[in-house]
Design brief:
The protein is of the alpha+beta class. The protein has 5 helices and 12 strands. β10 and β11 form a beta hairpin.
Length: 227
């Protein structure tokens, strides 16, 4: 591999570019998407097949090193970036993996903000429970599934036979707040307190994004792994 790497650097030096770059998408240890093109002098160019073969062989040699940095717990798809500095005889591997981010939010709503169906539902709860001051709904959900954990009436646990209308009440306010249902995609968890004509929605939503793993593996002819 040492001689192959030297050949790769010699090949790219002919382009007179100090920094050459390519980007791949992998499914754990399988190359899922790569156009086999490199950014050279601000242009996308496809090198000789023997050069792309060296890159593929290098990737296979360093799979174990990638595992040390990459986190596949959220998604096994990840990005591998390869930076080639031909005049320094150096190749650098960096990576990005998908992570889940938690974002908290607290919003106050008024009764008038509800759809008519949910206004009717809230009115029905107060009409059927004389003297009720407030009720609270605890919820969590993701990937189109979810659960109403508990419902409290004035701090006392209240058993429910059908939670559909509670779902719809939370969805009404979550769509207004975040543009999506509370169990959509990575979902959300939290609670809703309805206090007469005022409502307090306190929740944490979860989203995914790619984040740099901190991986920075420098490969040179002097330290490259052998096949």
């Amino acid at each position: 591999m040492k001689n192959k790497l030297k050949m790769l650097f010699a090949y790219f030096r002919a382009f007179k570019d100090k920094n050459i770059f390519t980007h791949l998408t992998l499914d754990r240890d399988y190359i899922e998407d790569w156009g086999e093109t490199f950014t050279i002098n601000d242009k996308r160019l496809k090198p000789a097949g023997s050069i792309t073969k060296i890159i593929e062989d290098l990737i296979k040699l360093y799979y174990d090193e990638f595992y040390r940095y990459n986190d596949y717990s959220v998604d096994e798809y990840w990005y591998l970036e390869i930076h080639i500095q031909p005049f320094e005889n150096k190749l650098i591997f960096t990576s990005e993996c998908k992570v889940e981010k938690a974002i908290g939010n607290k919003i106050q709503y008024n009764f008038k903000d509800l759809t008519q169906e949910n206004k009717d539902f809230v009115n029905k709860i107060y009409e059927e429970n004389e003297g009720l001051t407030k009720f609270q709904i605890l919820f969590t959900g993701r990937w189109d599934d979810g659960n109403i954990h508990r419902v409290y009436f004035d701090g006392r646990k209240h058993n429910i036979d059908d939670d559909v209308e509670f779902w719809e009440l939370i969805n009404d306010l979550m769509v207004q707040s975040d543009g999506r249902w509370w169990n959509e995609r990575n979902g959300a968890e939290g609670d809703l307190v309805v206090w007469d004509s005022v409502m307090f929605l306190d929740y944490t939503k979860f989203d995914e994004e790619y984040e740099d793993t901190g991986m920075h593996i420098e490969v040179t002819p002097d330290n490259v792994k052998e096949e």
